[in-house]
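task queued by scheduler; priority normal; single chain, no ligands, no partner chains; default sampling; output format set to structure tokens
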Amino acid sequence: MSATLHIYPAPSTPREEAWHYRFECAEGHGESGAIDSLDTLAEVLRRWGRHLADQPWTVLPTFGGAAPARTEDVWSWDATRVLSGPEATALVLQPRTRVSQGIPSNAQASAGPPRRSS
């Protein structure tokens, strides 16, 4: 079994209310838990995002607020911040104002997950 990260809505709850993750790898260690905020999602994706399976990057959970007008390299958001970057290991949380002004993230460009586009 290769390493995999699964991000999924919690059973028996509305999609917007609760998400969970489960990471499994061949060495037998893994972890799981709730994704209750943009901070938690960012942490999980930085650690294990390169192993994301069954869930396209373009449909990751969001945590409030309208979608930003510019969504290239934006993977999730809350009312005041966006999670952006060209790949899982280079994700940054930044204020929405930086994205709306077209200021790129501090991450270096490289190959990564498919880009969300507006």
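post-processing summary
- The longest helix spans residues 38-48.
- The chain has one domain: 4-100.
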